[in-house]
Design brief:
Length: 378
């Protein structure tokens, strides 16, 4: 019965949150959601250490009740925002989308779960994305309750993206044949995390709704830097775990460079908008990436796989280093150092020029090494 305790505590915390919000008691409601956050961490730890299917029907119903109560909390928050007297009020699109998605999940999850249970399929535990979405939504609820404007849109956006990722995994499980249903490996989940979090980076980078990144709040500049470090760490860990746990797969070989391109090109476009890169630099980098992907497609049509080359790894490392240095240089404390402001006039463009040259050389290396593939078409 100990496995059920975190489920019960989570539901109690949500009920208390709704009661306190209905009475206008914001700090008690905040305390209840803080307890909910701790209960979510505890529940996630229990999932890793026990088997979810020990109590399959209880797990399904408790999760359904949890989703219903969480949808109620976000419904109340949405209703409060809609009644705001602020003349500059804008419709809370992210909050509304999050609430709608919770309602969809409230209907879809029990239908899927009970259907899988009747067919004898292994439910397993909720995917990483679902557990992470609970954490993000709980943090978002806490920020909305206290009306902390600076971070709540980011937390809601992160929760929305994580819920979409979780829903995609459930659709994958539902529509594939039972004998082919395989969960994403840890390495692939880390790789996908870069794709999912890239839109969050863009939201953080342009949080002040101004293309001039220097005007952004220091907190969000630091958060952008932390996210890039996270991209670099996950890029290292996905390869490390794939080799350590023998999880090297064809999907991973394609997904890893794809996630690097998605995250890096998105960041370069942010730099272009902020004046840290020239358009010809980003255009040449995009040309190289698209050309190499076309080369991979041609090889795949012949049953061949073009593995990542050393030059490609160097290219990615240098691109990430350039991104890191530019974001560090843009921090307000760094800009306040004597002489930095003068150097900064040309510093980002110089680094981006180096990254562009290395990227083009890497692309040439791929084409030279893949001349056997090209001979079949030229």
């Amino acid at each position: 019965m100990l496995e059920l305790l975190p489920r019960v505590i989570r539901i109690i915390c949500l009920v208390l949150t709704l009661v306190f919000m209905a009475q206008g008691l914001r700090w008690p409601a905040f305390a209840a959601t803080a307890c909910l956050l701790l209960a979510n961490f505890w529940h996630n730890n229990r999932i890793r250490s026990t088997r979810e299917e020990q109590w399959p029907r209880t797990a399904i119903w408790s999760r359904t009740i949890y989703t219903a109560l969480l949808a109620g909390v976000f419904g109340v928050l949405l209703f409060e925002d809609l009644l705001t007297p602020d003349p500059l009020f804008q419709f809370p699109k992210l909050l509304a989308a999050c609430w709608i998605l919770l309602l969809v999940q409230l209907v879809a999850y029990p239908l899927y779960a009970f259907s899988a249970l009747r067919s004898g399929a292994d439910l397993g535990g909720p995917p990483f994305w679902s557990r992470a979405a609970r954490i993000a939504l709980t943090v978002a609820a806490m920020l909305f309750i206290l009306k902390i404007d600076h971070f709540r849109e980011i937390s809601v956006g992160a929760g929305l993206l994580l819920m979409l990722a979780s829903g995609a995994i459930f659709l994958y499980r539902y529509y594939r044949e039972p004998e082919h249903r395989k969960p994403l490996t840890l390495a692939s989940q880390l790789t996908v995390s870069r794709i999912v979090l890239t839109p969050v980076f863009i939201l953080v980078f342009f949080y002040d709704n101004n293309l001039d990144y220097s005007d952004n709040n220091l907190v969000f500049k630091a958060l952008s830097l932390v996210m890039v470090v996270g991209f670099m760490v996950t890029d290292f860990l996905d390869g490390y775990f794939a080799r350590k746990y023998n999880q090297v797969s064809t999907l991973g070989k394609y997904l890893d460079p794809f996630s690097d391109k998605i995250s890096n090109m998105s960041i370069f476009l942010c730099f272009l908008a902020s004046g840290y890169a020239n358009i010809w630099m980003v255009a040449l980098i995009y040309f190289r990436e698209a050309s190499v992907e076309t080369l991979r497609t041609l090889a795949a049509s012949q049953g061949m796989t073009i593995a990542a080359r050393r030059s490609g790894k160097w290219k990615t490392a240098i691109q990430m280093s350039v991104i890191l240095l530019i974001l560090i240089g843009a921090l307000d404390p760094v800009q306040a150092i004597p002489g930095v402001a003068e150097v900064w006039e040309t510093f980002p463009q110089t680094l981006m020029g180096i990254a562009t040259v290395v990227t083009l050389l890497s692309g040439a290396d791929y084409f030279v090494a893949s001349r056997d593939v090209l001979k079949r078409y030229l």
